[in-house]
Structures are given as structure tokens and as C-alpha cells.
Amino acid sequence: MLFCSSAHAQQQIELSIQGANEAQQQNIRAHLGSLPTEPHQINAFIAKAREKTLSALVALGYNNAHAKVQVNREVQPLRVTISVDPGAPTRITQMDLSLKGDGLDDDEFQQLLAGIIQQQGQILNHQSYESWKDRIQTYARNHGYLSAKWITHELRVNTETREARVILEFDTGVRHQVGEVNYKGSDVSRELLERMSPLTLGEPYQSSLLSSLESALRRSGYFDDVLVTPDLNKVHDHQVPINVALSDAPTHSFKVGVGYVTDTGPRAQFNWRTPRINRYGHSQETTLRYSTVNPYINFFYQIPGEDPLNEHYLISLGLEQNDYGDLTSTQKRLALSRQSTHKKWVWATQLRWLDENWNFAEQDYRAQYLLPGLTLSRTRREGPIRDPEAGFLQNYQVEATDQNLGSGGRLLRLTGFWKWLHRWGDHRVVLRGQAGINVTEEEGVESLAPSLRFFAGGDQSIRGFDYNSLGPTTTVQTDDGPEQRVIGGKMLAVASAEYQYYLYDDWRLAIFTDAGNAFNRDKFNPVQSVGTGVHWLSPVGAVRVEVAYGISEEDRPWRLHISMGAEL
């Protein structure tokens, strides 16, 4: 039973429906419309209530239904009761569906009809019948049957036997094809545009292909606006011309930012990007960042490959200074790489030249390397970038070199990084791991460039310890006597487990433990820290403020960590 009421300053009405199930009640209400609020509307509502109730039941396949309307005007609000006897439903006993034209050879079209035919034996629903017609017409329109038309569409109902017959005969006509694609509004070379296009001249026309083309052009970053439309007025030989209106993206973009991260302290950054240098789609990005620990300048020049959206070639130049343990190094590097995406994996082959200078114990060192390498990575993420619901990031890299390549020594370097997270309700778990190994001819690391050694400690490593402050040490004689200095190791193993609880949508608490270290063979001395923190989910990513303690050390070091950015 369903009760409804509507109030006005002078008049009220209450409606109850008896004898109908929930679906029938909802359809009856939909047919009746809004309850009247004005006195002069009430009599008209009551007069039409029975007719509309029966229409609502017929639409659901109850052609022999009965309905009675009773009105009690002696009470306030005025009460209207509709008593319903739906009776036995009408069922679809026969479905005659057929195609003519090119659609006969379209397996997907045939599967669509087969799915509709399976409804034979079900209770008749007029809305379902209309939706079947819409699905057939929509498929034809979206898949190139532009001259399709109905031959027959009938619904025959025998109210005495409560049987219905559906007759749908559809002529698809000739299936149209993709015609010439006309690009306007940009000087990007047609050859590059065609390499980005999923369309092939003469293939079956589908509206989804136009959406794919628009999406591909937008993803390129070359254009500020893209509009793809079929020119149905110029169809020739059943080929549909496609018009593409392009608006170029701004020639240059600049970003200036300031921030603070515990590892590198306050920093300022300037970024200059040119999304398209020439008509062949070349682009560049230059980043200059200043901080007291890790200032650098990087220049990237990108050239699209055969598949411009999934393959490109990259030339990069960099000058960087960084602290590694008790070493400060200056690096100059040049790299040539090819990156491609296949089945969501990003592959990168690279040839990297590294020239690094550092000073240790008042002695200057220099090393040069030519490092061929391969990087393989994949990121799976569910939910918003600033706060993923679930995800898994994995990255693997191998580099190798030899004296015969002009390098200072033989080296095989392997690294891996993993990060997994999952949220359920207000709870979230984040697990992280990092490992690496250097295989060299020498036992020690003294001749190995600091940027190729392994260190631990810091915001993204083992919290509670300073940035790159953990690793093997050596004894150095100073004016104050012998001192232990961190020089890094050949191997690395670090792991982290973190639990987070959401206080509000944009705030969460975290508790965590980090463990591991950089080390040399047979000398693994892991350290461990525990900590807690609060995270604010800003529009640009999580801002994390955390305090961690090194529980494995006698003096129990502690450190405040402030960091921000996307997690995956």
C-alpha cells in the first residue's frame, strides 16, 4: 500500500494504492502525475485516476486489470483510495525479428537481435519494446548504417488469450565507410596527424572512431581545442568525409613555484615548456630548480615516434648537485632514449653518459660512464590522482657498462621499486619496497660515482633519518681525530608499511614503520624507525607532516618530515 499527500493553504489530498506491487505502484504514480494543490484541480484528478491507473498497468503487460477509485470527502486531508486487481499478465509468446541489407553480415548486429529474442516468454512491457527499437536504431546509426529504416515494427496483443507478438523488420541498407579526413586550423604536418589517427580510409564507419580520433588529438598536447564531425552532406559512394577543426595550444607555458621538503629544504622552481616547436611535433621542457641540497637544471627534447601517442624519442641534458652521505657530487649527463607503451607497460631503452666529480677526505675524484640501459615500469591506479583508492606502482631498471665502452670500469646495476596501496572505508594501507645491487670488479665503492652508489634515509626512504645519511662508512683522519663518514654501498634493501585512517574527506592520520639500509656484501645492518603523521589532501596532492624515530639506534634519532605530491 502506498500513501501520498499534498498540502495547500486551503485544501489537502491523500492518496493510497492497494493491491499493486512496488513496480506497479511506481508506474501508476508516474501516470497520475503530481497530486493537485489547488481545489479546482482535485475533481479532474479524481475523474481521470481510474483511466490513468489502467493505462499504467497495460504498459506493464496487465491488459485485463481492474481498478476502482473511492473518495472520502468527510476527512481532512481528503482521501482517495485506488484499489487494483492486476489480473494475469500478458506474455510475449512470439518474437519475429529480421534484418535486411549489409547488417546481415554484421556479427555484432546479429548478437544484438539474439539478445532481444531471448526476452520471449517474459511479461510484456511496452517500455522494453520501445527500448528494443531504440537499441536497433542507435546501433545502426553509430555503426555506419546511415540509410537504415524500419520495414515493420508492430506489437500485436491478444487481450483474451493474454498473448503478445513482437514483429520487428529492419532494413540496414548499405554500411557506410570512413571517407577522407580533412584537418583545418593547424599547421601540424598531415603525416603526423595521420599517425595519431585511428581511422583508416574505407573501413566501416563508426561514431566511436570519431570520439577516438578526438581523444587521441587532445592527448597529444598539441591542441587547445579539437572538434571532429562527420560531413553527412557530402557523402559520396557511401563514404563519409570527416572534418577535424583544430586550435593550437599556446606556444609556450611557464610555471614558477616555491616549496619546502625536509630532504632538500626550501626550494624554488621554474619550468618552461613548449608543447610544439615545429610542425613535426617536436617539443621541449626545461626545468630549473634551486635548493640548498639538490639544485639542478634539466632540458628535455622530445620527438614523436611512429605511434606518436605511445612512442617517442628523448634527448636530455642535465647538470645537478646532490649530497650523498658525506659526499657532495656534481653531475653532468646526456641521455638518448626511446620510450614506448605496450599493454600499459612503459619500456625505455637508454644510452646515458655521466660525468661526475666529487671530493672526499680532501681528495678530488672524477668518473665517466657510458651506460646502456633498460627501464620497465607500470602504474595501476584506481580513484583520483590526489588520493587513489587502490594502486600498484612497479619500476625496474638495468644498466651495464665496460672499459671497452669508454667507462671507468665494469659495472652492472639493477634496481627495483614497488608501491602498493588499498583503501576500504576509512582505512588505508600503503606498502613500499626498494632494492638495488651494483656488480663491479672492485670490492669497495671508492672509485664508483656517488650517484651510482646506494644510500638510505629521508622522506622517500627510511624516515627518522636524514636524507641519504645511511649506508656503509669508512674511517677518515681529521684534525679532531678519526671519524666515521658515510660513503654508500653496493646494495640496497628498504621496506615500509603504513596504516592511514581518514578523519574527514581531506584529512587522515598515519602510523608507519620503515626498515632497511644500504650495505655491502655480507655486511647488512638494517635500521628501523616508527612514526606518525597527519596528511592534508590538497588539490595538488597529499601534504604530509610526519614525525619518525629511529628505534634501532641507541640515541633514538628523530626527525620531522614534510613532503607533498602525488603518491602514484
Automatic annotation (TrEMBL):
Q: Which InterPro entries match?
A: Bac_surfAg_D15, BamA/TamA_POTRA, D15-like, TamA_POTRA_Dom_1
Q: What is the first-listed, main subcellular location in coarse terms?
A: membrane
Q: Where is the Bacterial surface antigen (D15) domain?
A: 312-565
Give all residue intervals belonging to the POTRA domain. 178-237
TamA POTRA domain boundaries:
14-86
PANTHER family reported in the protein's UniProt record: SORTING AND ASSEMBLY MACHINERY SAMM50 PROTEIN FAMILY MEMBER, TRANSLOCATION AND ASSEMBLY MODULE SUBUNIT TAMA
Q: What is this protein called?
A: Translocation and assembly module subunit TamA
Organism expressing this protein natively: Bowmanella dokdonensis
